[in-house]
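Form 12-C: Joint structure prediction
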Amino acid sequence: MFSVNTVIHQPGSFAKEQPDESFDYQWPEGGLQYIPDWIYTSPAIYQREIKRIFHGPVWNFVALEAEIPNAGDYKRSYVGPTPVVVARDTDGSVHVFENRCAHRGAEFCRSQRGNAKEFVCPYHQWSYDLKGNLQGVPFKRGLKGEGGGMPKDFKNEEHGLLKLNVTTLHGVVFASFARQLEPIEQYLGPEILKDFEVVFKGRKLKVLGYYRNELPGNWKLYHENLKDPYHATLLHSFLVTFGLMVAGSKNGMIADATGRHGTLASAKPDNVAAAVGAVKSEMRSYREDFKLADGRFLEYVREFDSPWSVTMQTIWPNLIVQRELNTLGIRHIVPNGPHSQIMLWTMFGYETDDEEMTRHRLRQGNLMGPSGFLGLEDNEAIKFVQEGLRRSPSQKGVVKLGGTTTGSTSSVIDEAAIRGMYAYYRSQMGL
Amino acid sequence: MYPGYDMPPPDARETREQRLEIEEFHADYCWTLDCGDVERWPEYFTDDAVYRITARENADAGLPVGLVYADSKAMIRDRAFAIKHTQMYAPRTLQHLVTNVRVLQVEDDAIKAQSNYLLLQTLVDGPTTIQQSGRYYDTFLRSGGKLLLKERQCVYDTVLIANDLVLPV
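Section 2 - Result
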């Protein structure tokens, strides 16, 4: 049972969760200052998103190369909701193919990760190489004297696994169902590439481990959350109290030219007390009496050539890159129906880290993840939003902070990046 | 199996007293958490305690990350304070059920043991659900006549966490 399920009002018990075929998907008047609830609740919209976005002209995150360093290494992954396998061939190249046997459709790869010479579907033992090509079909020519077997014109090369378009950038692997797509650097755009490279370029990653959680909220709410600096300065007592991100300090919400990607950036102020003191009356979650018993947890080792101590990147449509002080990780969003998403976290450091730096990253990891001081509050808030959208008769939300502008802002009291994302979303969705 | 806890255990008949003591420890520890008295939770640990909650896939692969990762009692105290006073989450109640206690090693004042746990969670308008099914790998130290945790590794099977894990295991 997923946490989206409640005893009262199971998903699907409200009309707005099941609009009939004649429902008119008209964006509310007022342009981008309003967001209609049906983009979060309608199964028809969800199916359109899978087709036009996740299976459309986008680069989907599927793996870090550090997860599959050696020939034969593989992991199960997802493109949108679609299960895929990411495998490294003996020539070092990385391949992504559907986790679905070309014969009868069995999801043949059952382990999260491992090392293999080939993939064999357990049902009828069709075998595939690490590129996804069909290698062997048992009894292909039938039984001697009894016939059967494949027709004479059956060609293995016509019955391989469905292969996706693959690209890698600084150790990050992306895949797409689209055959023609701009190069990944161009897809990200210079504004986003800059902070992406701070984390990945020229660095060998060391995977520290995984978290997985089911989040009972529409997948777009997670993108919004990280294109919404306003919440960061209000909801999260840790950011506010310890000056990790304070309204009025040096912050930025950076968007690419299309509006689909974003970087929420912040520089920890040199004088935390002064920065917090100037705005604390606006922030209910500020706690004067909260002093850490173990201050090591929030120390910041300046390891990057960047003005920002925090960059949270939303890379359309399914990747979050987290650099929060010295805790690093990615989140892979797997949409799971209109009301739910699966969040796959990979936490990492660098191969050059000594033991103390690794421990520092692990300690600071308490900020993020499904038990993180910041992470759990976001998960709770997103759940509350989905329940409110789903169960109320009201029809729309308001995104008016900062007026009608879209894209990058230096103020955190602004929702221009959310508006920019929905301008792009509407163009892709035909809404 | 967990590194450091994979030794052949002594004959269970020789460690019944320790097992009973550990069962009493679990009962107190769980009572404290299930009552919502989370600020008393750090008192079950030594000053240099290590506490980690992690998925079995990490434990099996030797990956060090923790959902919760503390390497001092002070860090455990900070988490207790945050849960009680600063974190935003929906109200919930928990029941910890701990069973299958096995004493793995007794050396002077130190005892190593493993136990299975179930963590049941109830939200205001939801059913009671199994939040986690897992195993404790514990190292106890005797201090002033009572047991304290020097290490608690909580390794869970419930790989896909239902939204989040707020309260301690």
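Section 3 - Comments
Chain A touches chain B through 49 residues (CB under 8 Å). Chain A has a mean pLDDT of 93.
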